[in-house]
Protein 1
Amino acid sequence: MRTVHDVLSLRFMKLVAMGMVVLVTGCASVQPDPLPSWNEGATKQSIVAFVAKVTTPGSPDFVPVPERIATFDNDGTLWAEQPMYSQLFFVLDRIKTLAPQHPEWRTTEPFASVLRGDVKGALAQGDKAMLQLVAATSTGMTTAEFDALVTDWLAKARHPRFDQPYTSMVYQPMVELLAYLRANGFKIFIVSGGGIEFMRPWTEKAYGVPPEQVVGSSGKTRFEMRDGKPVLMALPALDFIDDGPGKPVGINLHIGRRPILAFGNSDGDLQMLQWTAAGNGARYMAFVHHTDAQREWAYDRDSSIGKLDRGLDEAKARGWTLVDMKKDWAVVFPFDRKR
Amino acid sequence: MRTVHDVLSLRFMKLVAMGMVVLVTGCASVQPDPLPSWNEGATKQSIVAFVAKVTTPGSPDFVPVPERIATFDNDGTLWAEQPMYSQLFFVLDRIKTLAPQHPEWRTTEPFASVLRGDVKGALAQGDKAMLQLVAATSTGMTTAEFDALVTDWLAKARHPRFDQPYTSMVYQPMVELLAYLRANGFKIFIVSGGGIEFMRPWTEKAYGVPPEQVVGSSGKTRFEMRDGKPVLMALPALDFIDDGPGKPVGINLHIGRRPILAFGNSDGDLQMLQWTAAGNGARYMAFVHHTDAQREWAYDRDSSIGKLDRGLDEAKARGWTLVDMKKDWAVVFPFDRKR
């Protein structure tokens, strides 16, 4: 005989069962595709498979959380680097802003070329000229003052082709990849040839990467007392170039551990990928290959910016991933989704 | 009429009530004093009060987690630095080990003095002699080889006074402080004049501070291919001295954020504390004051190692904390507890 109690129990069991269904569905619904801007295919699969094997306890490739170090180049890997590095746009804008205070620049190279609008001519004068431009616009002030200049500039400046703020020129699939790796216990470092002080004011907002996880090229600074208050003065002297063979040096100095995953896009990242590949255990090395002239740019072996030549050969020879921007990315920039 | 069901319900209520008591008691019991090796008093109170105010949401002094940066000197602040820096013991032991391969050292200074047992005489030859000793023992090898040398040495070497491994010469109250800060969302960096490559092999185990949160003095390294495998070679060239006015420079380069809490013990830490103090909002600056000749050492203004002179005056003038080792610490070293 079924009693009221039995009926209630049955109803209770049903509720429990329904609850479980809700819970299970709920769990499924809070785990949507973490990489929605990546098209399905071998590249996306290889990323997901790598993350799965290094994070699955008991897997022969399991890597403890503290050792899940991932390094990313910035220009051309996390945001656009064409038609010029954004930092160069900053430098050139700043030269124009400061020109009235420097009448001598009208007749002094490389400043004169910049002020005539001949950027190509200015850059053709070589590294020394480039360093002069950087020194004139980024030193002789405190680190806090430079931070404020960069922040101000980013709020106003627009990319010449896309008419977007430079911080919108980040690659949406890469931003998703950083978040996905972070959610899987990875600690992400930017390892860029760009200026460390130029990147730090905005990397946390743009990528979720805090200043202490940004490695870059740097000038020397000096501790001084100014009106009784300590400041760090940016000096017109180069400290370190975090590019090419400098990248493993920068990684060692700032991180002190070898990455297990590294993404770059040019020959300037080759040594970082070699250094990453040379460790024991599971590794993931990739170049972002710029193959999309329509949505971004297409360039590799012959480019003056972001040249990928030796790296392209080595990636193919060693089975590193080549992210085919055109094929692998459903969208490139965040604003693509809204168009 | 009480039914079986009622009785069961009552019993259930009692169990729930008992469970709650257990839970409440349990909660209380999992929060023992996080700083048991600190004696009660103004110093301990000031630490706990600072942590409370910067971590309490809604407090006017609240600091978001990413900005809870704490920096600690190492020698004399986290572990003993007398009668010599541990790194110097390493260097001297290494000179003796390598001597048979370098017969010329018997007649070349500063090596000859070291081999005669005249350490004082060797050190009296100045910074250049010191750098020669470091270069001879810590360069001309890969960073991985140096790491292995340090690890091997630490496993065998014993402190001359206490006959303990050097990694047991850490200050138990400071180890507790690091754990307490970490539990409260602080990110802890070591900022030491010692060699960055000398510290990284053991700071994670000794202090819970991972390699990427260690800032120190460094030599230059170079990326090379050796038998087709990439290595970083330690070169006999100084890169950076992370001491005195170098500490804010190192903090800026490696962290890129200003600390809100800093501990040092000597004038070599003064600028780090000044830099920390100069930020906005709540700050905590402290010197560990070596006042305990019996359990450790007593030294300040006149010491050749860890001299605290200007810093002592400035701490008193500005109300920074002076940790009185003798008065404030119930135990000094971890092995004190077992004696």
Protein 2
Amino acid sequence: MKQEINIAIDFMGGDDNASFVLHGLRLTYEKYPESRFQLFGDEDLIRSKIKNFPDLQNISDIIHCETFVRMDEKPSLSIKRGRGTSSIWKAIDSVKNGKSDIIISAGNTGALMAMSTLILKTMSEIQRPAIAAIWPTINGETIVLDVGATIGSNTKQLVDFSILGASMAQSIFDLDQPRVSLLNIGEEEMKGLDEIKKAHDILKSGSYFFNYQGFVEGNLIGKGVSDVIVTDGFTGNVALKTAEGTAAQISTYFKDAIDRSLTAKLGYLFAKSAFQTLKDKMNPSRLNGGVFLGLNGIVIKSHGKTDPTGFSSAIDLGIDMHKSSLILKIQKNVNELNKELNFD
Amino acid sequence: MKQEINIAIDFMGGDDNASFVLHGLRLTYEKYPESRFQLFGDEDLIRSKIKNFPDLQNISDIIHCETFVRMDEKPSLSIKRGRGTSSIWKAIDSVKNGKSDIIISAGNTGALMAMSTLILKTMSEIQRPAIAAIWPTINGETIVLDVGATIGSNTKQLVDFSILGASMAQSIFDLDQPRVSLLNIGEEEMKGLDEIKKAHDILKSGSYFFNYQGFVEGNLIGKGVSDVIVTDGFTGNVALKTAEGTAAQISTYFKDAIDRSLTAKLGYLFAKSAFQTLKDKMNPSRLNGGVFLGLNGIVIKSHGKTDPTGFSSAIDLGIDMHKSSLILKIQKNVNELNKELNFD
């Protein structure tokens, strides 16, 4: 029997009454029978829903929480209202107390980040936590960070993000020397912001556990030229959202093109299985799940609007990272590098 | 007979020996017979090429230039080497002297911007020029600026860009009250950089010639929710390149899906005309051509890698703007607004 993995679930987060949660947990349980779930939320609500999932009932604890954080609540207010009582807070706290190995929420991102930072604390030598996204590329996947935790990053933070992202790439892509790049607006060294240029100078001057490759521009993210792409949270968030928007835009064009004529519809039927592959590749499910890096614990943010597969894949990612001892790996990498690095 | 429009062409810019230039000019001439071209570059080269275009020979002047700017040259070096002698410099100078109405180059963007700013000067009350891109959306087109001239913009510059972009939208989309939005990472007012928040406060507090709509996130650009989307040049460049990269990535998926089976190929044949429409929509030709705004003259940058249609559409855009007296319109809008605005 494999060692149990304890997973804290914020049951109250997400749109559409989080109807995807239990179906998602079942998918994860089928894949990882060693899963055990701690469900944080309104006890009556959880009991009324879980009774249709007898397999999950046996492996889940329900922890009643008096409050929950609204999706649109400001983080400062959510902490005032939900400190010690809300489902997000208590779920994170169970990681802090060692009762859970990872925590997943489809709730309010800002509140999840603020509470995670308060409870779990930032790792020593790391200035600010980051949100890492897994970006599908034509060759596989790339980790892009930060996609929204920081606004405007200094040089030290960009170097921190390189270490965090490269450690994650080692874990989930199983790579020895991940390739790391900095997002910039020109490949020439002359361009870009001062803090990015300085981070570039630091990263290229040393020999680290990752392979620093220099600058990349936004058009290369989807080409899979690097395993990790580092940027500040403002730029990363705009890039991620713009890519999502462009994919949605092209889907609309595609549907319009198919609907235009009978022959086009007929052609679509012939090519349907091929287009299913295309649709799967454009499916953001695997991208679902921002990972909070730089904290003393594994925190995963699932999209608020997701489906069982998306929610389950976010959990699976957390399980992957737990099994590969990501937190220990990061702390070791951070400690080793910070001895060598010098930020003035 | 319509009034002649004089168009200065940097003959030496662009990849692939600028083979698209004369074919592009012919397309523009067919559409606008009032076009007259000033061709700046190596006289022998131009003569050897234009002899195959007798229709263009009659309406073109050739202005010999001793030097030209390389595509990868640093702007500072290009000014040192090419001041007064290079094809870009002399072409811009012809706008300054009133001999040309607009200037188009497919050459080095940084050099074109640096020389344009030196020669034509920034408009009074405008701090920095911007590069505006025309972004295809599911409803039509949106102007996005700045996409690369500035790195990190202050509040005044973001408000300037709103005025510049809205004036351009009035001209090329023929709108009375264009909708203007600021690109940000959350729709809530709490998020974003300080300078963006301050620009937001200024824009929403007054009543201007455009309709300020607040913040938009990256995923909404392609939905056509606004006529003008304003951001700093770093973020705008990353967003534009990321959108291009995502479109290219999906094209690759699409080709792979079609190539996977015989039935898929057959289906593709049936639906071919529909997919042609799709391909046309994803064609960046119409997006080709960044417009430099905020200078005392119309300067258009064409992509270095373009084709005759793309080059011609960049010129056509310049003709549109000239015919609608864009520069006068901008200066009027800028003067009126700057009386009302107060930047501390």
